[in-house]
Amino acid sequence: MTKTTYVIGHRNPDTDSIASAIGYAALKQRQGDSSVVAAMAGDPNPQTRYILDRLGIPDPLFLADVHPTVRDTLNRQPVTVNRKSSAYEALELFNKSGVRVLPVVDGDNKPCGILSLLRLSESYLLPCQDKLRQVTTSPACLAKTLAGHFETGVIDDNPITLNLFIGAMLEESFSSRIEGYDPGELLIVTGNRRTIQLAAIERGVRILVVTGGQPLEKDLLELAIQQGVSVLLTHHDTATAAWLARLSTPVVALADLEFAEIGVDKSLAALRQKLLGPNVSAVLALEIDGTLAGVATKSSLLAPLPYSLILVDHNELGQAVLGAELIEITEVIDHHKLGNTHSNNPISFITSPVGSTCTLVARRYRECNMEPDKKIAALLLAGILSDTVILKSPTTTNADIQIAAWLEECSGLVATDFGRDIFAASSSLKNYGSLDRVVAADFKLFTQGKYSIGVGQVEVIGFDEFYRMKEGLLSALTEVKQRDNLFIAGLMVTDITTETTLFLVEGHTRIGHVIEYPQLEPHLYELKNVMSRKKQLMPHLLKVLAKV
Prior knowledge:
Helix 8 (218-227) links the parallel strand 11 (207-210) and strand 12 (230-233). This protein is elongated. The two termini are 54 Å apart. The strands form 5 sheets. A 6-stranded parallel sheet has the order 3-2-1-16-17-18. The chain has a 6-stranded mixed sheet with strand order 7-9-10-11-12-8, with helices on both faces. Helix 2 (46-55) crosses helix 15 (415-426), helix 7 (194-203) packs parallel to helix 8 and helix 13 (374-387) packs across helix 15. By secondary structure, it is of the alpha/beta class. The chain has 19 helices and 24 strands. It has 4 domains: 4-67 and 306-426, inorganic pyrophosphatase (n-terminal core) (Alpha-Beta Complex); 69-132 and 250-302, CBS-domain, CATH 3.10.580.10; 139-247, Udp-n-acetylmuramoylalanyl-d-glutamate--2,6- Diaminopimelate Ligase, Chain: A, domain 1; 430-545, DHHA2 domain (Diaminopimelate Epimerase, Chain A, domain 1).
């Protein structure tokens, strides 16, 4: 099975996050790794949507959650046995496949029981003393197992329990042996012995098996029809026929009809809990329509997952797609401070204090002596222009400027014109659709000691629209703070024309005494010449909050 690697940015992705994921996945594919797929952990914000639509680039795969599920560990070709099959067929399947548990399914591949090799073995090796003669079978199963055919009688799949006798003696002894048994519950196996055949037919036994490939004489056949005796002819000898008759029991009669089951979309944690239940050796995994998807055992919990992650534009699990802590991370490309990324093995970790992750991705193209195609070059350029606010942010480095110039050549675009188009088309807060989306569009979590802090950022042209929406945005921040149990929740509204940020904050009341920026009104602060959350606001905010 080919393992898929998802290149994915942080939750609430911005343009740099999505552009770097698409650009790096494209590079990996150019290098011959077709299993690498670009993904995103949230919907594109209005700016990113404008860029993708303008460039004609499809959205990356949406992955809101990568928690391992039951379907990730399943063998999609489970060995099953039909409910109408015999114990003999089940034994053959156990022998050929090496499995120890067989799901019993109906004609629609829906499970109706589970049969274990242990249970089957115990049924035949440790039979109850008072049931040694009993054979549970059906006419259809008996004929199939004995490779025979019925000369008379009704062939159906209905299980019946019969007492098995072998007619290998004188008629007098045979008749005395079956005396006292209900003829309708007798299964007689005999060879070419006319006297035994006649006695069985006259008594009206349920089924008479004639072995050795010998036909029943015409007069006996007519009598059997009159007496309602089902006559089965088989080429096997008597000893083999008797042994096979015991193995002709339909598996549904031997299976456990109560069994553990789980949906394929459930988590591995839920599967683990079921497998730890008493006397549970396997759990049947079901599709949404109830059909069997596979069989999960304790070894399924140790199976390698079919996908891994490459993180771009972040390295902290608190910002990563949900479930990332349970998935193998093979690479990280980021331009933020180091966080708590986990890895059990050495990985490629590319980090540098540049203005955009797209700068690092584009640099990888150059290091590999490759030039991105025009669309990817334009997308990477857009990521740089977005994160550096058209190369005006204090986070901008010479590397960003140099790479942007190279991408201009590759894409055929003029960076400043392209940047103005991007911000002009996406600066209106109404483009986000709702107040909640304005706050969540590029919302990131940070930690200061035992406290969690959340700060979002949007770029605008002028503050008039913000002031009209301020009270609603504050209410949205209040909801986020309470929902995520944050110390403070804030929103940076950055005017790219004046290079000024208004910081709307909900949280600790003493922040106004330590933030060291002018407070315009309750909950609102003016941060002149502040455009970068990463380089300007957060380092300062974390430092002053340590004083609170």
